From TrEMBL, chain A:
Residues that span the membrane, as ranges: 36-55, 86-106, 113-131, 163-187, 208-228, 240-256, 263-285, 291-309
Main location as per UniProt: membrane
Locations listed in the record: Cell membrane
Pfam families named in the record: BPD_transp_2 (PF02653)
InterPro entries recorded: ABC_transp_permease
Originating species: Teichococcus vastitatis
Membrane-topology descriptor: Multi-pass membrane protein
UniProt-recorded name of the protein: ABC transporter permease
Keywords in alphabetical order: Cell membrane, Membrane, Transmembrane, Transmembrane helix
From TrEMBL, chain B:
InterPro entries recorded: AAA+_ATPase (IPR003593), ABC_carbohydrate_import_ATPase (IPR050107), ABC_transporter-like_ATP-bd (IPR003439), ABC_transporter-like_CS (IPR017871), P-loop_NTPase (IPR027417)
One term of GO molecular function: ATP binding
Domain ABC transporter: 5-243, 242-498
Domain of life: Bacteria
UniProt keyword terms in alphabetical order: ATP-binding, Cell membrane, Membrane, Nucleotide-binding, Repeat, Sugar transport, Translocase, Transport
UniProt-recorded name of the protein: Sugar ABC transporter ATP-binding protein
Organism the protein comes from: Teichococcus vastitatis
Keyword Protein biosynthesis in record: no
Keyword Repeat (UniProt): yes
Annotated Pfam families: ABC_tran
UniProtKB/TrEMBL annotation, chain C:
Main localization, broad class: periplasm
Superkingdom to which the source organism belongs: Bacteria
UniProt-recorded name of the protein: Sugar-binding protein
Organism: Teichococcus vastitatis
Membership in a protein family: Belongs to the bacterial solute-binding protein 2 family.
Domain Periplasmic binding protein: 32-283
PANTHER family attached to this UniProt entry: ABC TRANSPORTER PERIPLASMIC-BINDING PROTEIN YPHF, D-XYLOSE-BINDING PERIPLASMIC PROTEIN
Subcellular location: Periplasm
InterPro entries for this protein: Bact_Solute-Bind_Prot2, Peripla_BP_I, SBP_2_dom
Length: 327, 506, 318
C-alpha cells in the first residue's frame, strides 16, 4: 500500500467514522451491504477507466455505452428471448468491440482520446435512443431471467454478487497491472510513450489493450447495472457515470497526465464516492446537495494530495541541494 | 573608469546548502569573460543572482561603480543585463520580429494598443543585419534552426540595448560551423563595447574567444586565468582540481568482420540521397556533420523509428527488415538518443524499471514479473556503470545528465548489444562524467559491439572515434582514418561541397 | 445586382420550399414535445398515432428531448417554429419561467399544453391530469394503505418540476389531519440507479418506515425492487404513480398497494384532435377555464390484470 492509498484509506475511515458517529445506522449490515453492491457496480468500470487513464487517455463514453449496451441486452433477453449467457456475452462483446474501436482510433489515426470518446458519448446515446424510439425498456414483461438476474443482482453468502465480481475483477486487474509485462508497459506508455517506443515496446498495442479492457469492463458493469435497475431509459441511463469513474480514479491516485495509479487506489476511490452518496441519505442531508458534497470532498482530497506532494518535493529538493549545491 | 559590473563577496545560502561562497568577479566593457565549472559548481545560481531572480545572502553588486541596494529582475533589466539561455525561450508561434521585441512592441491605434507590425519589422531588420542573420524579421520562429534561434535570442538582447550579455551554454545545440559563426558575432559584440559572460562546457570556444576565465567549483571561485594562460589543460585542472587523461583510448583489438552494413539507404529526410555506411564490431565510428545534415535521421532509420524509402541494412551479413524499434531491438541494434529525457528514459520510473524496460519479458516467471530478478539486473548495471545513486529505486529523473546517460546504457547493456547508436552521447554532461562515458563506449567496442557515435562536439569526434565519416545534406561526404584526423578536414567535409560550389560560382 | 439575384433565386426557392412543400400537399404538421423519454410517452405516442390515422392529411410527430432540460426543450421549439409547424402540444419542463418562449409559440402556431400546465402563457388549452387532484388520489390510497397512520417517504426525480410539486401538494392536502407523517422527499436527478439507492438507503436508515411513494414513473419500480431486495415486502407499503411494467407486476404480486395512473393515450389523442379542430376553426370544445382534465385511474389488485394486458398491447404497438 503506497502512501497515497494509505492517505485515502485514512480519509475513508475519518469520513466513515464521522458519519457513523452522527448516525450509527451507517454501519448497519443492511446499509453496508447496499453500499457494497453499489461499490461493486461502480468499481468495475472505474477500474477500466483507471487503466485507460494510466495510459494517459480517458474514456468519456462509458455512460452512453451503458445506455446502448443496456437497451441491447434488454432487447436480446426480452424480445429475442436469447439464452441469457449468449445475451450477456454479446453485450460484453459489444463493449469490447467499442473499446477496440476507441483504441484503434487513438493509436492508428492519432486522434485525441478525449475527442474520440466524446464522440462516442454522443453517438452511443443517440443510437440507444433511436434504437428504442426513446422508450424505456425493462424486464417488466420478461419471462425467465431469474438465474441471470440472481447472478447480477443477488447475493452469495450474504454478500452482493456485484461486489464479489468487482473483487475478482480487481484482483485480476491488480495482477495484470502490477505484475505482468503488459502492466509495466501501461505505466511506461503513460509516463513517456516515446521512451517506451524507443525501448522496442509496441505502444500502439499496449494502448489499444487498455481501451479493450476498459470496453470489456464497461460491458460487464453495464450488464450488472441493467439488472440493478431492471429498466433502461435510453436518454438518462448511465448519464454522467463516466465522471464518477474518472472521479474515483483521480481520487485513487491516477493522474490525468497518465502513468500513475493503482487498482487498490481506484477501488478505494470508488468506495469513498459511494460513501459520500450514502451519507447524504443516511444523515438526511437534502438530496440536492448530493453533488456539492461529492465535488467538495474530491476537491479537498486533491488539494491535500497536491500539497503533500509539493512538500515531499521540497524536502527532496533541499536534500538534493545538500548533495550537490546549486544548479 | 569603474568596471561595468563588479561582484564582491557574493554568497548564497539555501537551507543547509552553501550554493555560493564569497564569489568576486568583475567585467569590463568590451570584454568576454569565460565562466567555467562543472555541473553543480554554482554557475547557474550565480547567474540567477546576476539576473535578480535570486537575492544573494551576502555581498555587494556594483554597476558602473554604483552599489546596487535593491537588486531584482526589473533592476537587472534596467542595468542592461540580458540572458541568452541554454534552453531556448522563444515563442514558436510568433515571427522573429515579434520575439525580438516581445513586451516592447511599438504600438499604434491609441487605446486599442495595436501592434505596429511595420515599425516592428523596421526596428528589427537592422539588428538582424548586424548579426549577419540569413533570415528576415517576419520569418516564423518555428521555421528556424536552433542556431538561427540562438541569433534571435541575441537580437532580443541587443534590442533591449543590453550592455551585459550572459550566454549560458549557447552552443550546446549548435554544429561546428554554426558555433564558429556565433563566436564571430560574440567577438563583434565585444568590439562594440558590450561586456559578455560566456558559460560553456566546450573549452575550445573559451580558448577561441575569452579574454579572461574564471572558474567556480563547489560554489567558490577557485581561480582565474589571463588570456595568455587559457588552455584546455589549465582550465580542466581548475574545474576538476586534477589532470584529465587524454580522451582517446585505442581499441584493444583490430575491428572484426561483419557488423552493420548499410547500402543505398534513403531516409525520409533526404529522399534524394542514399547512404552507404559500415560500422564494424570493435570500432567506434564517429559521425560528424552539421545539424540537419541527416545524421539523426539516419540513426532513427537504423533504429526503425523512421522507415527507409530504399536501401538495405545487413547485420553480420544477414539482411534486416526494420519496421519499428521492436525489430531493431530484437536484432540487437540499440539507440542512445540525443534527447535522453524524452526518448531514452521514463524519468518518473526508478532506475530498475528503466534498466529492464526493453527486456521486461526476460524477468518473468509464469507470465508475472519477478522484482527480485529485475533488481539484481539493475544493481549489476548500477555497479558496473558506476551510476551515482544510493540504490536502484531512485527515480531516473533525479539523476544528473551523466548518470541518466548511464541508465540508458544500462538498459541496453543488460541485453545483448550488437550495435549501439549514440546520438550526441555527452550533450549536457560535465567534463568528469564525459570521460566515463567515453571509457564505457570503448569498453563496449572492445567487447565486440559496433558503435556509431553522432557528435557535434569537435573534441569528442576527434578524440574518441577510431574512424570518422562526415555527412553533408543527407549523404556521406567523406571518411577519415585516425591518421587523417583534423578539425579542418572534418569541417571541410561537413560544409565542403557547398563551400566549393560557392567558390566556383564566385 | 443582376448577378446577385440570379444566385439568390435558387437559394430563396430552396429555403421557401421547405415548409411550403407540406402546404402544397395539404400536409400541415403538428408536434407533441414531451419532457423526457419514458414508457408513459410511448403510450401517448399511440394516442397520437390513432389521431393521425383519423386525420391522415396531417403529419403528426412526437419529439423527445435528449435531456430533460428547459434549454433543450426551447431549442426544439425554436426548430419547430423555424420549420413552421401548425401546432405544438408541449409538456413544459419549467412552465413558470418559459412563459415567454411559450407565448412566442402561441403567436406563431397553435399552442396546447399537456401533462404539465403553464397557466400564465397564452396556451389555448391544457389537456392533461390535474396533478394536485392526482396527488389527492394518491393521498387517499396512502391513507387506505396505512389506516393507523405511520411514516412515509416520497421519491421523485427533481422537485423543480411542477408535476412533482403539485403531486406533493395534493398528497399533503389529503394527508392533512391524518396520522401519516411524511419524513422527507428524496430526489435522484433522473438517475435511475440513484433512485434505487435512495430507497435502499431509506430502508437502511429508517427501520420503522411504513410507506414509500414514488412520484415519477420510474420511482415506483425502483421502490418495488429495493423493498423486495431488503425482504421487507408487506411490512413497507408502496403507493405509486404511473404504469411501469414492474409497478403493475408489483401490484399483481401484492407488494404494491396501488398506483395512480394518468391516461397519456388520451393526452396524445385529444391534443392532436383538438389542434386539428382549432385549425379547422372549431374552438367550441375548449371550456371557459381552458383546462380539459383527463381523470386519473386507480389500478390495484382488482383491475391490474386487465390493465397489464391493455398496456402490453399498447406498448407493443397495436
Amino acid at each position: 500500500m503506497s502512501k497515497k492509498e494509505l492517505g485515502l484509506a485514512l480519509l475513508l475511515v475519518v469520513i466513515g467514522g464521522i458519519t457513523a458517529a452522527l448516525n450509527p445506522l451507517f454501519l448497519s449490515g443492511v446499509n453496508l451491504l447496499n453500499m457494497a453492491n453499489l461499490i461493486g457496480l461502480f468499481g468495475i468500470f472505474a477500474i477500466g477507466q483507471g487503466l485507460i487513464i494510466i495510459t494517459g487517455g480517458i474514456d468519456l463514453s462509458v455512460g452512453s455505452m451503458f445506455a446502448l449496451l443496456g437497451v441491447v441486452l434488454v432487447d436480446l433477453l426480452v424480445n429475442f428471448e436469447l439464452f441469457w449467457p449468449l445475451a450477456v456475452l454479446a453485450t460484453i462483446g459489444i463493449g469490447l468491440a467499442l473499446g477496440l474501436l476507441h483504441g484503434l482510433l487513438v493509436t492508428r489515426l492519432k486522434l485525441q482520446p478525449f475527442v474520440v470518446t466524446l464522440c462516442g458519448l454522443l453517438i452511443y446515446r443517440g443510437i440507444a435512443r433511436y434504437y428504442t424510439q426513446d422508450s424505456t425498456s425493462g424486464f417488466g414483461y420478461a419471462g425467465d431471467i431469474d438465474t441471470v438476474s440472481w447472478l447480477a443482482s443477488g447475493r452469495s453468502f450474504g454478500i452482493p454478487n456485484p461486489f464479489i465480481i468487482m473483487v475478482v475483477v480487481a484482483i485480476i486487474m491488480a495482477v495484470v497491472l502490477h505484475r505482468t509485462v503488459f502492466g509495466r508497459y501501461l505505466y511506461a506508455v503513460g509516463r513517456n510513450e516515446e521512451a517506451a517506443r524507443h525501448s522496442g515496446i509496441n505502444t500502439d498495442a499496449v494502448i489499444t489493450g487498455a481501451y479493450l479492457l476498459g470496453g470489456a469492463l464497461a460491458g460487464l458493469a453495464g450488464v450488472l447495472l441493467v439488472f440493478y435497475t431492471s429498466s433502461v431509459s435510453p436518454s438518462s441511463f448511465g448519464s454522467f457515470y463516466e465522471l464518477y469513474a474518472i472521479a474515483a480514479a483521480v481520487l485513487g491516485g491516477c493522474s490525468l497526465r497518465g502513468g500513475e495509479g493503482s487498482i487498490l487506489g481506484i477501488v478505494l476511490g470508488t468506495v469513498l464516492l459511494q460513501i459520500l452518496q450514502n451519507l447524504v441519505n443516511i444523515l438526511g442531508i437534502p438530496s440536492s446537495l448530493n453533488f456539492a458534497v461529492m465535488g467538495g470532498v474530491i476537491l479537498l482530497g486533491v488539494i491535500a494530495d497536491q500539497q503533500l506532494g509539493q512538500r515531499k518535493q521540497r524536502i527532496q529538493l533541499s536534500r538534493a541541494q545538500g548533495h550537490a549545491p546549486a544548479e | 573608469m569603474a568596471p561595468l559590473l563588479e561582484l564582491e563577496g557574493i554568497g548564497k545560502t539555501y537551507p543547509g546548502v552553501r550554493a555560493l561562497d564569497g564569489v568576486s568577479l568583475h567585467l569590463d566593457r568590451g570584454e568576454i569573460l569565460g565562466l567555467i565549472g562543472e555541473n553543480g559548481a554554482g554557475k547557474s545560481t550565480l547567474m540567477k543572482v546576476l539576473g535578480g531572480v535570486v537575492p544573494p545572502s551576502e555581498g555587494t553588486l556594483r554597476i558602473d561603480g554604483q552599489v546596487q541596494e535593491s537588486w531584482d529582475v526589473p533592476a537587472a533589466t534596467r542595468a542592461g543585463i540580458a540572458f541568452v539561455h541554454q534552453e531556448l525561450s522563444l515563442f514558436d508561434n510568433l515571427d522573429v520580429a515579434g520575439n525580438v521585441l516581445f513586451g516592447r512592441e511599438p504600438l499604434r491605434g491609441g487605446l486599442l494598443r495595436l501592434v505596429d507590425r511595420r515599425a516592428t519589422r523596421e526596428k528589427v531588420a537592422p539588428i538582424l543585419q548586424r548579426l549577419g542573420a540569413d533570415f528576415t524579421p517576419d520569418t516564423p520562429v518555428a521555421e528556424l534552426s536552433i542556431a538561427q534561434r540562438q541569433l534571435v535570442e541575441i537580437a532580443r538582447a541587443l534590442a533591449a540595448e543590453a550592455r551585459i550579455i550572459i550566454l549560458d551554454e549557447p552552443t550546446s545545440s549548435l554544429t561546428l560551423s554554426e558555433t564558429a559563426r556565433l563566436l564571430t558575432v560574440v567577438k563583434e559584440l565585444r568590439a562594440d563595447g558590450v561586456g559578455l559572460i560566456y558559460i560553456t562546457h566546450r573549452l575550445g570556444e573559451i580558448v577561441d574567444c575569452a579574454d579572461r576565465v574564471v572558474c567556480l567549483r563547489d560554489g567558490k571561485m577557485v581561480g582565474a586565468l589571463r588570456r595568455e594562460d587559457i588552455a584546455h589543460g589549465t582550465m580542466i585542472r581548475l574545474m576538476i582540481g586534477r589532470e584529465l587523461r587524454s580522451l582517446y583510448a585505442p581499441p584493444a583489438n583490430p575491428p572484426g568482420e561483419g557488423g552493420l552494413a548499410v547500402r543505398g539507404l534513403v531516409t525520409t529526410a533526404f529522399p534524394g540521397s542514399a547512404v552507404d555506411l559500415h560500422i564494424r564490431p570493435g570500432e567506434i565510428l564517429g559521425l560528424a556533420g552539421l545539424v540537419g545534415a541527416g545524421r539523426t535521421s539516419l540513426a532513427r532509420t537504423l533504429f526503425g523509428i523512421d522507415l527507409p524509402l530504399a536501401g538495405e541494412v545487413r547485420l553480420d551479413g544477414k539482411p534486416l527488415t526494420l519496421r519499428g524499434p521492436r525489430d531493431a531491438v530484437a536484432a540487437g541494434i540499440y539507440l542512445a538518443p540525443e534527447d535522453r529525457k524524452k526518448a531514452g528514459l521514463v524519468l518518473d520510473m526508478p532506475i530498475t524499471e528503466n534498466v529492464t524496460l526493453a527486456s521486461a519479458p526476460d524477468y518473468t516467471r509464469g507470465g508475472l514479473m519477478v522484482h527480485r530478478l529485475e533488481r539484481s539486473a539493475a544493481e549489476k548495471q548500477r555497479q558496473g556503470l558506476r551510476i551515482k545513486a544510493p540504490n536502484c529505486s531512485v527515480r531516473a529523473g533525479t539523476l544528473s545528465g551523466g548518470n541518466q546517460q548511464k541508465v540508458v546504457l544500462g538498459k541496453w547493456l543488460s541485453m545483448a548489444p550488437r550495435v549501439i547508436l549514440f546520438d550526441e552521447p555527452t550533450r549536457g554532461i560535465d567534463v568528469g562524467a564525459k570521460g566515463e562515458i567515453y571509457a564505457l563506449m570503448r569498453a563496449l567496442s572492445d567487447r565486440g559491439v559496433a558503435i556509431l557515435m553522432i557528435s557535434s562536439d569537435m573534441e569528442e569526434v576527434l578524440g574518441v572515434s577510431d574512424r570518422i565519416v562526415v555527412m553533408h545534406e543527407g549523404r556521406i561526404s567523406g571518411g577519415l582514418d585516425r591518421a587523417g584526423f583534423s578539425e579542418q578536414a572534418v569541417l571541410r567535409l561537413a560544409i565542403g561541397s557547398r563551400h566549393e560550389a560557392e567558390e566556383a560560382h564566385a | 445586382m443582376q448577378r446577385r439575384s440570379l444566385l439568390a433565386a435558387p437559394a430563396a426557392i430552396a429555403l421557401a420550399s421547405w415548409p411550403r412543400m407540406g402546404a402544397a400537399q395539404e400536409k400541415r404538421s403538428l408536434a407533441f414535445v414531451v419532457n423526457v423519454s419514458a414508457d408513459f410517452w410511448t403510450i401517448c405516442r399511440r394516442g397520437i398515432e390513432k389521431a393521425n390515422r383519423e386525420h391522415p392529411d396531417f403529419a403528426m410527430e412526437m419529439i423527445v428531448p435528449g435531456q430533460a432540460s428547459a434549454a433543450e426543450q426551447r431549442r426544439i421549439i425554436d426548430e419547430l417554429l423555424a420549420r413552421k409547424v401548425a401546432g405544438i402540444a408541449i409538456s413544459p419542463i419549467n412552465p413558470a419561467n418559459s412563459t415567454e418562449t411559450l407565448n412566442r409559440v402561441a403567436s406563431q402556431a397553435i399552442l396546447f399544453t399537456s401533462d404539465s400546465d403553464a397557466p400564465n402563457s397564452n396556451r389555448l388549452v391544457y389537456i392533461g391530469t390535474d396533478n394536485v387532484a392526482a396527488g389527492r388520489e394518491a393521498g387517499k390510497q396512502m391513507k387506505k394503505a396505512l389506516p393507523q397512520g405511520g411514516k412515509a417517504m416520497l421519491f421523485v426525480g427533481t422537485m423543480d418540476a411542477d408535476n412533482a410539486r403539485e403531486r406533493v401538494q395534493g398528497i399533503r392536502e389529503e394527508l392533512q389531519g391524518s396520522e401519516i407523517n411524511i419524513i422527507d422527499i428524496r430526489t435522484d436527478e433522473s438517475d435511475i440507479a440513484r433512485a434505487k439507492r435512495n430507497v435502499e438507503d431509506t430502508l437502511a436508515r429508517y427501520s420503522d418506515i411504513n410507506l414509500l411513494t414514488g412520484l415519477w414513473a420510474y420511482n415506483t419500480p425502483q421502490i418495488y425492487q429495493a423493498v423486495k431486495g431488503a425482504g421487507r415486502e408487506g411490512k413497507v407499503k408502496i403507493v405509486g404513480f404511473d404504469e411501469d411494467a414492474l409497478t403493475l407486476r408489483g401490484i399483481a404480486d401484492g407488494t404494491i398497494e396501488s398506483t395512480v395512473v394518468q391516461q397519456p393515450f388520451e393526452f396524445g389523442y385529444q391534443s392532436m384532435v383538438g389542434m386539428v379542430k382549432v385549425l379547422n376553426g372549431d374552438k367550441s370544445f375548449i371550456p371557459a377555464n381552458k383546462q380539459i382534465i383527463i381523470p386519473t385511474r386507480i389500478i390495484d389488485k382488482s383491475n391490474v390484470a386487465d390493465f397489464q394486458k391493455q398496456m402490453r398491447d399498447l406498448l407493443r404497438g397495436a
